[in-house]
Amino acid sequence: MKKFAFLLFSIFSLVNAYSQSTIDSGTYRYSAKGDEYYYHFNGDSLLTVTHKGDTSQIIFYTDTSKTPNHIDMKILDHEGNYIYTSLGIFESAGRGRYRIRMSSDMINRPKTFMPYGNPEVVILVKLR
Prior knowledge:
Elements: H1 2-9, E1 15-16, E2 20-21, E3 26-32, E4 35-41, E5 46-51, E6 54-63, E7 69-76, E8 82-92, E9 97-102, E10 121-126
Antiparallel strand pairs: 1-2, 3-4, 3-10, 4-5, 5-6, 6-7, 7-8, 8-9, 9-10
């Protein structure tokens, strides 16, 4: 469960300036050493994450007026109650792909995606 919670912090995508989606609605996949996570963005700031039958819901907001783009994720428990907010950054990584980095300490927003190969950076790929 700790690994699942950590990966929840490390992933996701976007709603423009806290309202308008900047990512296509749909389902995206992230694979970590054979483990597959599925992220479903429904376009109204709700993200559903599924991993091995466990499902979590996150309310996400983005601000594309910042550089890099900012993303805030309100993590909810299984009853839908707010637990905490994780801060991050995101960018497009090509058609149907997004690069996301969430705070490793849950306090300070990351400033860059560097260094190359940083395990806190994940790539979501849209399923067709």
